[in-house]
Amino acid sequence: MNTNTVSQLLAKDQFGQEIEINGWVRTFRAKRFIALNDGSTINNIQCVVDFENTDEDTLKRITTGAAVHIKGELVESQGKGQKVEIAVKSIEILGDSDPETYPIQPKKHSFEFLRENAHLRTRTSTFSAIMRLRSSLSFAVHKYFNENGFYYMHTPIITGSDAEGAGEMFRVTNLDAKNPPLTEEGKVDFKEDFFGSETNLTVSGQLEAETYAMSLGKVYTFGPTFRAENSNTSRHLSEFWMIEPEVAFMDLAGNMDLAEDFMKSVINYILENNREDLEFLETRLLDEEKTKPQAERSEMSLIEKLKFVVDNNFKRVSYTEAIDILRNSKPNKKKKFNYIIEEWGADLQSEHERFLVEKHFKCPVILFDYPANIKAFYMRLNEDGKTVRAMDILFPGIGEIVGGAQREERLEVLKEKMAALDMPEEELWWYLDLRKYGTAVHSGFGLGFERLVMFATGMTNIRDVIPYPRTPQNAEF
Ligand code: 4AD
Ligand code: MG
Asked: Using a 6 Å cutoff on CB, does residue 244 contact ligand 1?
């Protein structure tokens, strides 16, 4: 059967051609005009029903949400806004909808309402555009690494280690929660557990990726990661996707170059390949902006923001410089920040990150050389003995989008660091082995994929850029 997609048909101009198409009815107007969508594009194709020759029962069943199969002829459109339309010759209702109860009515719905109907929300233009962009971005990620000599590595999802040392993990077990086996000291005996030891869902594939970087040279992992942190913010998920490249013989400066080039490349990919979806989301945002007071409106449109990132250098600023800027900033002096920056060593909150990016530098910023004690154990200690070769990339509207570092490659220094944090060497013996056998400078970073999708779509809640968000108290669907 020669069935076409809406996207294919809208690009055609062979009028008079017989065509067949499947899709869902978005709207049905005046017993005549169906706006049909099949997910292949943001645009609907108009299908004009010959109502005099269509039986009354079928006409009644053409309702918003119904699945239909249409045979007809491609004709030049008489109406405005489209070049082609379909003169319907026959229409078959494949799946009825119920106009009384179908949640996705052709009107504006709140994002909260659509989250409760996440199984149907991609039938709206906004969410279909977001998810097509998500798909494109993920393809662009693989394309970039593939074209740049990286191997795709599948790091394990079940692991025994806590890569970030933050203890925010989901336990994986098949022990009986009501009656677990106990050790002589009365603690849960994980030797009896499925894997014979304590395991959890991974918070990051980095440590395993490092092992492969130290043999294959350039690798990346792109998979789901899990954090049991109880942060109910618009930027945190309990399950999110992370992209983590890891490269041997690369220092922090190389890491910054890679991250910047990579991010520009994937954003450029959607500018070139997802224009219609971006234009739709841009218009949506412009409408939303109109409801805000002038002072809060964004200076750039969505596409302008994306182009800005592609065309401009990210500003590279050391943590120490950033602290000086923040300490002397207006919101700090006027005590407008929730957390006032008083001295060097303070951890940066998202309000500070956003001040630097949105108010001070007005461009993406790479902050580097953070104090050792606010960063993870694996980061390379600098010669000053107090900072580490960490880098965070901060984006406008998002805050931290990337976290990475040059890794500590010196066995003794790493051991000391772990000892100071009470991390038992036995648990990471294989990680330490990398420093024993052929150690070398190496670096990598983690990009939170959903934060990238937020930036690319202009969405402000991370729950709206992943199909089925997992957050504290919520794992519906
Ligand atoms: O800064 P993070 O914690 O870094 C790591 O996990 C390193 N092991 C990465 C590496 O060097 N290979 O996380 C990296 C990024 C953050 O910058 C953020 O974009 C995202 O992951 N992220 C989250 N995204 C959504 N929800 C959460 N709860 C997130 N936590 C981190
Ligand atoms: Mg981080």
From this structure: yes
What are the structure tokens assigned to 390, written together? 């960490």
What is the number of the ligand closest to the CA of 466?
1
Q: Model confidence over 366-418: pLDDT tens digits?
A: 999 999 999 999 999 999 999 999 999 999 999 999 999 999 999 999 999 99
Sheet holding 171-172, edge to edge: 158-159, 199-201, 171-172
Give percent of the chain with pLDDT exceeding 70.
100
**Could you report the per-residue pLDDT of 146-188, keeping only the tens digit for each?**
999 999 999 999 999 888 888 899 999 999 999 999 999 999 9
Atom 18 of ligand 1: nearest residue by CA position = 448
Q: How many CA atoms lie within 13 A of 475 on its CB side?
A: 6
Q: Domain with 10 in it: what CATH number?
A: 2.40.50.140
Question: pTM score, two decimals?
Answer: 0.97
Would you call 39 helix, strand, or coil by DSSP?
coil
The response to whether residue 353 sits with its C-beta less than 6 Å from ligand 1 reads no
Q: Report the nearest-CA residue for atom 21 of ligand 1.
A: 448
pLDDT band at 298 (very low <50, low <70, confident <90, very high): confident
**Residue 267 sits in a domain of what CATH number?**
3.30.930.10
On whether both 39 and 133 belong to a single domain, the answer is no
Q: Are 149 and 68 contained in the same domain?
A: no
Closest Cα partner for 55 from 96, 94, 91, 98? 91
Q: Check whether 1 has a pLDDT greater than 60.
A: no
Domain membership of residue 136 (yes or no) is: yes
The answer to whether position 116 is within a domain reads no
**Residue of 201, 218, 239, 240 to test ligand 1 pocket, by largest number of atoms within 8 Å of CB:** 240
Quick check: 224 and 421 in contact, CB under 8 A? no
Counting from 1 in the atom list of ligand 1, the atom nearest the Cα of 163 is: 8
List the shell of residues around ion ligand 2, using CB closer than 5 Å.
403
Identify the residue whose C-alpha is closest to ligand 1 atom 26.
Answer: 236
Q: Is the CB of 403 under 6 A from ligand 1?
A: yes
Residue nearest to atom 6 of ligand 1 (CA): 204
* DSSP-derived secondary structure letter, 194: T
Within 96-187, strands assigned E span 151-152, 158-159, 171-172
Q: Specify whether 322 is located in the same domain as 448.
A: yes
Residue 2: what pLDDT? Answer: 63
The count of structural domains within the chain is 2
Range of the domain at 85: 3-102
Q: Indicate whether 306 and 252 sit together in one domain.
A: yes
